[in-house]
Structures are given as structure tokens and as C-alpha cells.
Fold this sequence. Notes:
Elements: H1 2-29, H2 31-36, H3 41-47, E1 55-57, E2 60-67, E3 74-78, H4 81-88, H5 99-103, H6 105-108, H7 116-124, E4 133-136, H8 140-150, E5 155-160, E6 167-173, H9 186-198, H10 221-230, E7 239-241, E8 245-247, E9 254-256, E10 268-270, H11 271-276, H12 280-290, H13 292-302, E11 308-309, E12 313-314, H14 325-331, H15 342-353, E13 358-359, E14 364-368, E15 374-376, E16 382-384, H16 389-405, E17 419-425, E18 433-441, E19 448-457, H17 461-477
Parallel strand pairs: 1-4
Antiparallel strand pairs: 1-2, 2-3, 4-14, 5-6, 5-19, 7-10, 8-9, 11-12, 13-16, 14-15, 17-18, 18-19
Helix pairs in contact: 8-17, 10-12, 10-13, 10-16, 12-14
Amino acid sequence: MNRELKRVSAVILIMFVALLCSTTTISALQVDNLRADSRNVRTLYDSYSAERGPILVAGKPIAESKPVDDQYKFQRVYTEPELYAAITGYFTLNQGTSGVEGALNDYLSGTANDQFLAKVNAILTGQTPKGAAVELTIDPAVQKAAWDALGSNQGAVVAIDPKTGAILAMVSKPSYDPNRLASHTTVNVISAYNKLLDDPKNPLFNRAISGDLYHPGSVFKLIVASAAIDSGEFTADSTFPNPSTLKLPLSDSVITNSNDGQCGAGKEVSIANALRLSCNIPFAELGKALGEETLRKYTTLYGFGADLAIPMDVTPSSIPGSLDVPQLMLSSFGQANVQVTPLQMAMVSAGIGNGGVVMKPTLIRTITAPDLTVIQPFQPEVFSNPISPQTSATLTQLMVNNVNNGAASNGRISGVDVAGKTGTAQNGEGRPYTLWFTGFAPANDPQIAVAVVVENGTSFGNAVAAPIARKVIEAVLNK
Length: 479
């Protein structure tokens, strides 16, 4: 009998320990995951119990909570809503959150672990609990210049400080008004949200970091050229045959340069001139000679496939795996199934301009508690070192040549050396192009790296995207 009691007692003890471990794991170790779970409506309602912290640009709120006479006490209000919607995102009662509002919800609502004592103290002293303030790295003049320059085009602009990774501007068009989603009337919010979802132009996409991504076209040649030169197997003066057409191996497909002719005069063309004139055939030949393994190494170093948060999650840029020779050759001038975000291409330019060092991009300058204690200061962080300083210097000069005397001529700014590259990506027979410009300035001491993408283009990157980038660059240089 005693033996049976011992067995039962042991089983009960084991069950009790298991229950204790389970509840401890849930209540302590999994607290952040549970709080972030979109199905946890208690977290959402709890975030309304405190005055939500503001989102600031240059010290001024672009999103803040104002008192209202209803059960939620405060309502979110967005200043210049469409200008900043891709960054702030929205904060709703029943359709979730996005942007900085979603990624930093625990800080803004005052529920982050390192704000727990402050929240308890506010309750005990009878004060209204408040969330932390989030100061962005955005420069309002650069953001406005990017918005205005993009105009009625559909696409995105990203501008980065190459030395720190601070994002100076992030614009995505078409945009939307997050105030319409901040209503406390459920039927109004759902109606507005459904209209945005049904819009074929997808205004809820942040095209700068997510969405369907883009074929990079000729801006991808920067990665191929830097990989070739940095590998030590080639120099800027290495040459390749210069035909006007090239039949891909194992295929009936024929590729051409953008002018349907040779890449300049002569039977051979250098990497430098092929980049300056943005020719496809020499880069297809270069990619084949370079090999998939080397190309993939450098795309990874630049950030392809990386999990990145700024703090919003960034959709990884990608290049297909197990490329056959034709796919490798097409990928080497940014076609086939290569897919990128504008942020990724801005990182490539920023890394080239910053001596071969890519800094981790971020939108967050500081997070400050209501008592003005800095919870999270801005600390520049190295993301990767894809190329050497020597390769960086070579690529910089090649990109300056692109602007001064090449296919990126509309990026010129009087008195300033601009390093740039254009792109005109094909999206299928009879479909509009994707137009690009990416670059940095001043070339010898970059203050800004920029990437511009324009959808549904009928012209070339130099005609449409380059002038947009020039205006964004000027907004930094003229300050």
C-alpha cells in the first residue's frame, strides 16, 4: 500500500513540477512573444489604458495621442499623415498595427519590460501612465524633398547616411491616411481598412522595404562589378568581347544592350566602360566568368537574404538558388528572378561610398521614457564589410564616371561629384519597366546614399529616377 502511495505521490509531484515549469515559461520567458502576438487583444486594449508615446521627427510629433471623451481616453492623431504613413504605420482597435506603431508598440504603450517599474510607480502615485517617446532619424526636409520629387509616380525613395546607417527619408507611394484607421468606431475602421485592401495600387505596402519587391535591372551591376574587382580575379580594365547580340548557352534566347548595338566602339569592352554605358552583354559575360559561388558570396555580404529590422521587418532581397548558366548570365545584369527592395540598393550604394563598410540601417534615433530617461540611444552598428577600401575607391570613381559621362547623366549636380547608377528593369514582354537610380554624394565624403524606384515606367531610369534622386541629394547638400 505504501509503495502504491509513493508512486501516486511521485506522479503528482512530477505533474506539479511540470505545471510549475509550464506556467513559469508562459508568464516569464514567453511574455514578450505573447505580448507581440496579434491575437492577444488584451495587449491592444491595455495599450489604450495609458497615454501612448509620440513618434517624433526633429523634435516634433508626427503621431501623438490626444485626450477624448470615451472609454479609450486617448485617440491617435497623425500630422502630415500620408507623408509619413510608410514609417509610422497605423494603430487601430481591431485591424492590428503596422510600421513603427507596431514594431515598437511595447515602448509606445509603456508596456515594455524596462518600463514596468515606471508604470507601477505612475499607478501608485495616481498619475496617468504614459508610453515612451520614439525619435526618428528622419530629416523632415529630406523626407519632404523625396515626397515632392516622387510626385504622382508609384514607387519609393530611401535615403541613408552612409556613415551611420541613419535613414534620412523613406517614402512609399501611393500612400494613405492612418487617421482613418485610428477611429474608435469599429465599423468606420473596418470600412476604411477594407477600401485600402481592395485598392489595386496597394497603398498599405511599404514599397521601400516590403511588398512584391522589384527586379533591380542595371543597378545590380554595382554588386557584380564590385564582386569581380574585389575578388582579385578582375580589374576595372578587364575586357570582354563586344558583340551587339549574344545567344545564351543552352537556350534560344538572345540578349542585347539597351541601344541594341555594341557597348561603345571596338571588338572588346572593359568593365569600366560597360558599367559607364550600362551594357548588358559584357555583364552577362562577366557573371558567367565570375561564377555563381562568388556572386552569391557578395550578394550575401551586401545583405541579400538577411533578416533585418529597422525596426519594422524588411523583406529580404533575393537571388535564386542553383542557377544554370543562362540564369546566371541574366541575373548578372539584374534580370531573371533577382528581387530587391529599394532599401537594399541604398545599402549597396552606402557601403560603396563608406569605404566598403555597410552600416546597419535604422529609423530610430532614441527611445525616451516620460521622465526623460533615454531607454535606447542611437548607436551606429556595422552590418557588414562586403568589399575592401581599395575596391570601394575604384567603384566610387566608376560611379562618378557614370554620372559625369555616362548613362546616369541626369544625376549631375553642379560643383559636386555624384556617384550613381541607373537601371531600367524589364518585367516581361509588353509590360512597363521598373526604373531605378542609386548613388551617393559628395563622392569623396558621402553625406547621403539614395535609392529611387519608379513603377510602370515607359522611359529609362536616367530620364525619370535620376532627377528624383538628384533633388533628394540636393536637399541634404543644400542644408
